[in-house]
Automatic annotation (TrEMBL):
PROSITE patterns: SAM_OMT_II. Gene3D superfamilies: Vaccinia Virus protein VP39, Winged helix-like DNA-binding domain superfamily/Winged helix DNA-binding domain. It comes from Lolium multiflorum. GO terms for biological process: methylation. The lineage of its organism: Eukaryota, Viridiplantae, Streptophyta, Embryophyta, Tracheophyta. This is O-methyltransferase ZRP4.
Length: 335
């Protein structure tokens, strides 16, 4: 017997809703990717942290024909908490009846009756009747009847111009210390597409290629060595992540580094974590060990030393060995 045979219709609809929501949950991350690609947070930041759609459009590359679509993207991003919406007050005019008709505006909506029609606007909607029709708009909609017809619109896109504001989430995407590089890496197709192959990956016996190699035919670090743009994508991401998280880590649990005189940051990338540790503990000798192509791009003239090495062969000696791994994406994919 199928599990759903005895379910009520409401339970079936709830279950279907859950299935749709879960299956479509990538829409949220793709909306964040679009926000990064377009620079939406920067555009809002440029206007002091809150901006209307026309103000945002002014700062980003959007074809004029796609402006209404951008409003939809903003809706996804506000529902996800990346931005918030502040409604402007009283920007829509009240009800106007020019003929024998009746116009009623409830809320911030505008209702206009130009003939004998009845126009009602509820919420932030705009309603116009030009003949003897009946038009009602609810929510953020616009409705017009020109003849004798009746029209009702619920919640479409045109109405009061909302102000889109930065939230604590999108504030992490602006300013000099931001997480744009990290999120750009996570959402890069090179990292996203391997996850489409998890099902196929389970069909093969271990040991087998990780999902990254299954997708791309080459290991992640090998690809980084061969492709400078991909290498930069990873290194920049790590610098933004490590700078952000290590400053918090030092503030919250810096005592774990007390008394350490030398520290070996294994697979430390460009050494952003070590740079933060070294500044917080100037007496500590911090060394980063990483692969040759990464060390070749390491910053010079800092207190942190960089050495080339393969951690699977040997790790140079030090008081403490430090390895920062916080990416579930790397662990899950067994990169
Ligand atoms: C996810 S990044 C982490 C970088 C750094 N720990 C951080 O969190 O900012 C992983 C690093 O491991 C390095 N790596 C990969 N295989 C390695 C190996 N066999 N020996 C040393 N480093 C390695 C990569 O070059 C890369 O810089």
């Amino acid at each position: 017997m199928a599990l759903n045979d005895q379910s009520t219709d409401q339970a079936l609809l709830d279950a279907e809703h859950e299935l749709w929501t879960t299956s479509f949950s990538y829409i949220k991350s793709m909306a964040v990717k679009a926000a990064l690609d377009l620079g939406l947070a920067d555009a809002i930041d440029h206007h002091g942290g809150a901006a209307t759609l026309p103000q945002i459009v002014d700062k980003v590359k959007v074809h004029p024909s796609k402006v209404p679509c951008l409003r939809r993207l903003m809706r996804v991003l506000t529902v996800s908490g990346v931005f918030s919406i502040q409604q402007r007050q009283n920007v829509v005019p009240p009800a106007i009846a020019k003929g024998n008709g009746a116009a009623t505006a409830n809320g911030n909506g505008a209702a206009t009756s130009n003939g004998n029609g009845v126009a009602t606007a509820n919420g932030n909607s705009t309603t116009t009747t030009n003949g003897t029709g009946v038009a009602t708009s609810n929510g953020n909609s616009t409705t017009t009847t020109n003849g004798n017809g009746a029209a009702t619109t619920n919640c479409t896109d045109t109405a009061v111009e909302p102000l889109y504001a930065l939230t604590p989430v999108s504030r992490l995407l602006v300013g000099s210390r931001n997480l744009v590089s990290m999120m750009s890496m996570i959402l890069d197709p090179t990292f996203v597409t391997p996850f489409l192959g998890i099902g196929a990956w389970f069909e093969h016996a271990l040991p087998d290629p990780c999902i990254f190699r299954q997708q791309h035919g080459v290991a992640l670090w090998k690809m980084a060595e061969k492709d400078p743009a991909f290498d930069a994508l990873i290194n920049d991401a790590m610098v933004s992540d490590s700078s952000f998280i290590m400053e918090i880590a030092i503030r919250e649990c810096g005592e774990v580094f007390q008394g350490v005189t030398s520290l070996m940051d294994v697979a430390g990338g460009l050494g952003a974590a070590s740079q933060v540790i070294s500044k917080a503990f100037p007496g500590m000798e911090c060394t980063v060990v990483d692969l040759g192509h990464v060390v070749a791009k390491a910053p010079t003239g800092t207190a942190v030393k960089y050495v080339v090495g393969d951690m699977f062969e040997s790790v140079p000696p030090a008081d403490a060995v430090f390895i920062k791994v916080r990416l579930d994406v790397f662990r899950l994919a067994n990169f």
